[in-house]
Specification:
Blueprint: H1 24-41, H2 46-59, H3 93-96, H4 104-108, H5 124-134, H6 140-157, H7 172-184, H8 189-202, H9 206-218, H10 222-228, H11 237-249, H12 256-264, H13 267-271, H14 274-277, H15 284-295, H16 299-307, H17 310-320, H18 324-338, H19 342-347, H20 350-355, H21 363-376, H22 386-395, H23 401-415, H24 419-427, H25 430-444, H26 450-470, H27 477-484, H28 488-497, H29 500-513, H30 520-525, E1 527-528, E2 531-532, H31 533-546, E3 553-554, E4 557-558, H32 559-573, H33 577-587, H34 601-607, H35 613-626, H36 630-637, H37 640-650, H38 657-682, H39 687-691
Antiparallel strand pairs: 1-2, 3-4
Helix pairs in contact: 5-6, 6-8, 7-8, 7-9, 8-11, 11-15, 15-18, 17-18, 18-21, 21-23, 22-23, 23-26, 25-26, 26-29, 28-29, 29-32, 31-32, 32-35, 34-35, 35-38, 37-38
Length: about 800
């Protein structure tokens, strides 16, 4: 029978200890109980020892948990000032365990070790050197008694109630002698146990840790000898070895060298099997934390742990155990491996097992579980996840800001490209809950600043991203789109914040919503103040265009993606004649028609050499749609650069057939328009006499800078375009977000906002004003009876990385 199969020395699983951390006073007491069986063999009287223990509890007002079943008052393993294992040390091993009967000759060797008559304590100044010499004696019984007394002294020094003024065990030769015993007395388990107990108690105070680590720096083989006894089951030796190892390795100041030695000696291989073999819920947290220390920031150790089935053992602990501290530490270790080998955790049912932890009453356990789930939520799986989604829907409205943020982020990954999960969400009020949560977050946004504001922004971003996934890829997609857009003010508000990440996800969602004709009415009529969707979209496009040659990425979002999404939405919404008229109005405004060398925004996008082909294709489709508006068609036809670009694209049909076809269709519309104008003006004079200076045949001497213009901006904000737009100074922060720094968003620390009437959020009430505005601000006319010719609104095209038709969510690189 191997030592993993024996259970006679297991700790009592019913001990009541501190809820937050592992209390080792009772672990120590139980291990000392194990030694009582040995004392019977030596002729001791356990009944008298038991009376002394009870008397000790009564005299010191100490409750171990046995008497009242309350949490122990003793210090705990991780909560002490020093992160090492902590033992209360209320009693000495010599008191609990009768010393073996020694002969008179053997007793004479201890004559120099005396106690003070006043307090009964050992005269440690003289005793420690004497004991150090006796631990080297050839007589094993003498060695055993010497190390027992040394352990008693070490235990007194780590006991706050019995500690003397100064620490006495300060000689590194004591540590070297204990090391020799671990090496040479392998066949004497009692000596080994007392030796480990002495080291354990020495390590329970910071001075002792410093002493041991200094000794290890001189004689590194102390660590290998400790590791050797992790596999010794007799007399619970492995427990003391594990606890002592944890105390040394978890020291943050000087434990680094010991950790390196332990890794080189494959300590992980000796410790991992105890995750499955150990039955005590009080020792298991120490084992888990020891593994965490060994694996921290070390790939080789993680690989060994995975090969030994470590993650599966941790998941088994979550299923079978109920001790909160053990569950929390297990999820903390799993969180480390969720970033290392997430597919492994998912394959072994990690998401389903972790879902059961979300209903636990411990906030720190729920938070640790959610963080682990978030890290593995982007791994594809065919397992059912209804329980997990149900729990996430409950937590997404939690009062804890971090819990609701992690819940929303996890949910977003789970529904991406997963039709069963989307259908479950839609049939279980998931969309309703998410929309309600988004509305509350938008309303409460004004009450937060700095870090809280950043968390709220991330939360809203995750909710919008989840809703975007639910808008496609299942039979109820159109109903979801209609329900989501019942409150268009929320999404217009998100566009007006001009935060890059929010812009990306909001634009992606709008791209799906505007595919329905019925939803174009609120898109057209919704207003915050005097600002509507069309004007804000064109404004976002202009700001993004000015950044194309300045910086590629702003706060993790590609500027090209923002440009592409704006062009895509404008292409789709211009199928509506009223919206087409409004788009024409704002595109021909001075700030939007003087980009670069004086071109309108779509032409400026075509000129950019760093714009991707799918964006240029969408831009050509937008220009084709704009050609069906009379005033915009005149404006585009007079742009000689556009005509040259169209002819150039048409000649590249072999390399870019789709672009060439679009260019040909636009040139055809221009030709037909010129022919109509020629016939119309033929009655009143030649075409050239009316528009000679704007003729397509006229040669221009100005050459467009294909690399775009670099404009001087305002500090870290998005740069100012070449126009008199004084509102630009309040827009996007171009610096990347750093959670370790103060959150400096233009929304919270910027000049006056673009819309001072509604600086913090959309107004309550109807999403549009039915009454005419009294402002002097010009508004675009509406042509209710305008008949729009066929336009490019359903042409299959590459949606680009920001809005793929298959709703593809980035795999692992796109995680939160």
């Amino acid at each position: 029978m191997t030592y993993f199969q024996k259970t006679g020395m297991d700790l009592d699983p019913n001990l009541v200890i501190n809820h937050d951390d592992t209390n080792l006073s009772e672990i120590s007491y139980t291990m000392e109980q194990d030694s009582s069986s040995y004392s019977l063999e030596m002729g001791g009287t356990p009944s008298s020892a038991g009376h002394r223990k009870v008397d000790m509890w009564q005299n010191h007002n100490f409750d171990s948990g046995f008497q009242t079943m309350n949490h122990s008052e003793a210090p705990s393993i991780i909560s002490s000032l020093h992160p090492s294992s902590h033992l209360s040390g209320m009693s000495s091993m010599a008191e609990y365990e009768p010393i073996p009967n020694l002969s008179e000759q053997q007793k004479q060797k201890f004559d120099g070790i005396t106690k003070n008559p006043t307090d009964g304590q050992y005269n440690t100044v003289r005793a420690i050197p004497e004991l150090t010499m006796l631990m080297k004696d050839q007589d094993n019984e003498v060695v055993q008694k010497a190390v027992m007394i040394m352990q008693n002294i070490a235990k007194m020094e780590c006991d706050a109630m019995r500690r003397q003024n100064e620490t006495k065990i300060v000689d590194p030769r004591v540590i070297f002698t204990l090391r020799n015993l671990l090496r040479d007395k392998v066949d004497h388990p009692n000596i080994i146990r007392f030796t480990l107990g002495t080291l354990f108690n020495i390590c329970n105070r910071q001075e002792g840790i410093d002493l041991v680590t200094r000794a290890i720096s001189e004689q590194p083989d102390i660590i290998p000898n400790l590791i050797r006894h992790i596999g010794t089951f007799a007399n619970s030796i492995y427990k003391y070895a594990i606890l002592t190892m944890h105390s040394i390795l978890s020291d943050k100041q000087r434990g680094g060298q010991s950790v390196t030695i332990a890794r080189q000696q494959d300590a992980i291989i000796h410790v991992t099997p105890w995750l499955e073999a150990e039955k005590s819920e009080k020792l298991l947290p120490v084992i888990v934390d020891l593994i965490r220390v060994l694996c921290e920031k070390n790939t080789d150790q993680k690989v060994k742990f995975v090969k030994m089935g470590g993650p599966q053992k941790l998941l088994h602990i979550l299923q079978q155990r109920g001790y909160e501290n053990l569950l929390w530490r297990s999820t903390q270790l799993l969180k480390t491996f969720s970033n290392f080998d997430a597919p492994c955790l998912v394959a072994f049912g990690g998401r389903q097992i972790l879902a059961g932890m979300l209903s636990h009453g411990s906030p720190r356990l729920v938070l640790s579980t959610l963080e682990t789930l978030r890290n593995i939520s982007d791994v594809p799986s065919k397992m059912k996840e209804e329980l997990l989604l149900k729990s996430l829907l409950e937590l997404v409205n939690s009062r804890n800001a971090v819990i609701r943020l992690y819940s929303a982020q996890t949910m977003s990954n789970l529904v991406a490209n997963n039709r069963p999960n989307k259908e479950y969400m839609c049939s279980n009020n998931g969309v309703v809950n998410l929309c309600r949560a988004l509305a509350i977050a938008t309303k409460d946004w004004q009450n937060f600043q700095d870090k809280e504001a950043q968390q709220m922004e991330d939360y809203a971003e995750s909710l919008i991203c989840t809703l975007r996934h639910l808008c496609v890829g299942h039979p109820l997609a159109e109903k979801v789109q209609a329900y989501v857009f019942r409150e268009p003010l929320i999404f217009l508000h998100k566009l007006m914040t001009m935060r890059p990440v929010l812009l990306k996800h909001t634009l992606n969602l709008l791209l799906k919503v505007v595919s329905q004709n019925a939803l174009l009415a609120p898109f057209l009529l919704c207003r915050i103040g005097e600002i509507g969707f069309v004007e804000q979209l064109i404004h976002i496009l202009r700001v993004a265009c000015t950044q194309l040659n300045v910086q590629d990425v702003i706060e993790g979002v590609r500027v090209k993606d923002i440009v592409h999404l704006c062009i895509q939405i404008l292409r789709l919404i211009t199928r509506n004649p009223d919206i087409l008229n409004e788009v024409d109005f704002f595109l021909r405004s001075p700030e939007n028609s003087r980009m670069g060398d004086g071109h309108t925004l779509p032409i400026f996008v075509l000129q950019k050499a760093n714009v991707e082909e799918n964006t240029k294709s969408s831009t050509l489709e937008l220009i084709y749609n704009l050609m069906h508006h009379e005033k915009m068609a005149d404006h585009l036809e007079r742009d000689e650069i556009l005509c040259k670009m169209l002819h150039s694209v048409q000649m590249q049909a072999a390399n870019h057939p789709e672009l060439a076809n679009l260019a040909a269709n636009i040139l055809k519309l221009m030709s037909e328009k010129r022919e109509r104008n020629r016939i119309h003006y033929g009655r009143h004079g030649s075409f050239e006499s009316q528009f000679g200076h704007l003729s397509v045949a006229a040669q221009r001497t100005e050459v467009l800078n294909s690399h775009g213009e670099t404009y001087e901006g305002a500090g870290e904000q998005w740069s100012q375009p070449m126009s008199d737009d004084s509102m630009m100074e309040s827009y996007c922060n171009s610096s990347g977000r750093d959670s370790s720094k103060t959150y400096n968003s233009p929304m919270y620390h910027s000049p006056p906002s673009m819309y001072p009437e509604y600086p913090n959020g959309p107004p309550s009430g109807p999403y549009y004003d039915p009454h005419a505005s009294t402002s002097t601000r010009p508004t675009p006319p509406h042509y209710a009876n305008y008949d729009s010719p066929p336009v490019y609104n359903n042409i299959p095209s590459n949606q680009g990385p920001s809005s793929h038709l298959s709703d593809q969510y980035p795999y692992r690189q796109g995680r939160f």
